[in-house]
Amino acid sequence: MTHVERQARVADAVARILAHCGSTIRLAAPLGLGKPNVLLNALFDTVARTPSVQLHLFTALSLMRPVPRTELEQRFLEPFLARHFGTDYPDLAYAVARREGRLPPNIQVSEFYFQSGSLLGNDSAQRDYASLNYTHVARDMADVGINVVVQLIASRREGGRERLSLASNPDVTLDLLDEMASRAKPRPLVVGVIHPRLPFVGNEAEIGAECFDVLLDDPACDHTLFAIPREPVAPAEFALGLHASALVRDAGTLQIGIGALSDALVHALLLRHRNNMAYRETLDALGGAHPVVQSIGGLDPFVTGLYGASEMVMDGFMHLAKGGILKRRVFDDFAIEQALAEGLIGEQLRTGDVERLYACGALPSLIDARELVRLVRCGLLPEGSRLEGDSVALPTGARLSADLREMVARAALGRSMTGRRLREGRYLRGAFYLGSHEFYRWLRELSADAYDGLSMTRVSDINQLYGGRETLDALQRRDARFFNTCMMATALGAATSDALEDGRVVSGVGGQYNFVAMAHALQGGRSILMLRASRGQGASARSNLLWHYGHTTIPRHLRDIFVTEYGVADLRGKSDGECTLAMLAISDARFLDDLVAQARRAGKLARDFTVPDRWRMNTPARLAAALGHPSRRGLFDAFPFGSDFTAEELRLIKALQWLKASTLTPAGKARLLWGTLTTGRPRDDELAALRRMQLDQPSRLREKLFHRMVLLGLRRTVETDRAL
């Protein structure tokens, strides 16, 4: 391309899209944060008013703010939403219309990943869902014949020069353009929308203006970025994180997702590194580390540290980097990376490294123009070094012989190298980022080595080992631990992560299959699926470990490691009988007998099998007791990385949850109403919470009832907390 259109009005960009696409728009937009909401909303409004134009939108993870369902939820949520998302955040018009069942007939939305659980009851969204591995999206979008791509991008001016970055989403765009070009398909119109608050990322995410046909820089597109509210972590999740953290080997590779289980894992890794004695004591209280830890994991603090290679970059990686764990850097040079893997050299070069590098083939016999570029790029020679005849001229004025077969030449190079640090190492690679406001601040404030070590790149580079650099990828991702969550698992090792057995989609497969398959392909790699052993409380409690389920995301022939709050099940290479025993050992004891009976009927357990006594101890009560002392020492705060809610809001969340649970049955409603008759006057601390709900001075009858209900909820949840 030689010409880039610069536009300053959203309306002009919409007109340009319509002019390019005519009556049929097949539009691709990135998942998550990379969507240009303002432009998409303007295009949606225009097409909705123009029945002769068809719009088919292909995307994933259309982020939506929560919607209150009751008046009490509305009183709680509206102030929080305004504070957290800003009063300027524009919800996606197509997503709102789809949620409310009013998508115009000339607009269709196809997604390959849903915001978890948000569209279970939405028939049109369920029909239009496309079940795709993340790595296949570019291929399949090329088949569709996408004719326009829109993407939020970051901009930075330095020395009078404009720099552009795909920032949060370099994941699919470039793969899609390459895929279409390779098939000689018409290039789509590529529209980049500059967002001044989007954190800029360099390296592979940085891109030239010539990649775009249109660059839109309209102040109307500047709004608060969508930030994920930080979730609380329950005691069972902390226990799960502790078990999982012991499977991570120092100097290895880490992939994690988002959510409470990932937060628990990150918290446990930090505890292992910072307070190792407390870490080991707590793990022992939970029953100790699984025997597989001796061969694949560890309990000691991290010395070399970890390298992150994950489709999603989120808060957890920020905390690990700040905590001194995420620090192992990888280098896109096989010989250098091999020398690092074998411990021949470190990132800072020492006396004698020149001979070690020469002996292993990382240094050439003769430095030519190509090798000079490589050695400068890797940091073995300083920038500004030049090849002059049969010698290398350094920027200091010194000269080195280019013939490294001579020991004298190697000695001279060694003196120049000693003390230098390797360059262009990456401690974290990802395909898209999404997280909290704190996370976005961290990204904006990265500088020097911390900035240079972060790489956002194509999903095809992260989620698989194909593409021509398989050997280097495998070397960099040594001792990889791919942590993913699932909803349910069978005793034979199949996992359900994305949908229900009736076919309704909860979220999507995303990259989970890719990481599970990669774990089996990589020497030393392990796939670790995390799930709570049970869900619900009391009579409504259900096991998440089942004998059979009617939908499978990860088939049992790819079974590897499962982790629940009750421990680790190592299934790799095991027989069905061995897998059954391992999974039963980490099940909730309340559901063991039924699982054992089903396993016996299927012939996977011996008829005379009896449940070991230690399995009967897998109960929430035992977990609470095991974590009780550490929790009192402040090691397991429900919000280990801080909360987006105020103290009053946290109290109110518990109270509102209690009220919701108490009104599920007619009898519960009756007991609640009876309880409101004896609440009395609020204390000062309760008055602050009521004030937050605008119920401190109720005037109408309805408000007075809400006042008493919330007050009762506050008091009952305080009593429950004291009992615990």
Structure in words:
This protein is of the alpha/beta class. The chain has four domains: 5-221, Glutaconate Coenzyme A-transferase, CATH 3.40.1080.10; 235-329 and 427-620, Acetyl-CoA hydrolase/transferase C-terminal domain (Glutaconate Coenzyme A-transferase, 3-Layer(aba) Sandwich); 334-417, no CATH class; 647-723, no CATH class. Helices cover 39% and strands 14% of the residues. It has 28 helices and 25 strands. Strands 1, 2, 3, 4, 5, 6, 7, 8 and 9 form a nine-stranded mixed β-sheet that branches. Helix 9 runs parallel beside helix 12 (315-322). The radius of gyration is 28 Å and the shape is globular. The N and C termini lie far apart (66 Å).
Brief summary of the model shown:
With 724 residues, this protein is α/β, with parallel strands linked by helices. It has four domains: 5-221, Glutaconate Coenzyme A-transferase; 235-329 and 427-620, 3-Layer(aba) Sandwich (Glutaconate Coenzyme A-transferase); 334-417, no CATH class; 647-723, no CATH class.
SSE arrangement:
Elements (H helix, E strand, L loop, with lengths): L4 E3 L2 H12 L2 E5 L8 H12 L5 E6 L11 H15 L7 H7 L7 E5 L11 H6 L8 H8 L3 E11 L2 E5 L7 H10 L6 E6 L11 E2 L6 E3 L18 H11 L7 E3 L4 H15 L1 H10 L7 H4 L10 E7 L1 H8 L11 H8 L11 H7 L9 H10 L7 E3 L2 E3 L5 E3 L5 H11 L10 E6 L3 H9 L2 H5 L1 E3 L2 H4 L7 H7 L3 E6 L2 E3 L4 E2 L15 H10 L4 E5 L3 E2 L6 E2 L1 E2 L14 E4 L2 E4 L5 H9 L7 H10 L18 H13 L14 H16 L3 H11 L7 H9 L8 H23 L1
Parallel strand pairs: 1-9, 2-3, 2-5, 3-4, 5-7, 7-9, 10-11, 10-17, 11-15, 15-16, 17-20, 18-23, 20-24
Antiparallel strand pairs: 5-6, 6-8, 12-13, 13-14, 18-19, 21-22, 24-25
Helix pairs in contact: 1-2, 6-7, 8-9, 9-10, 9-12, 13-20, 14-16, 25-28, 26-28
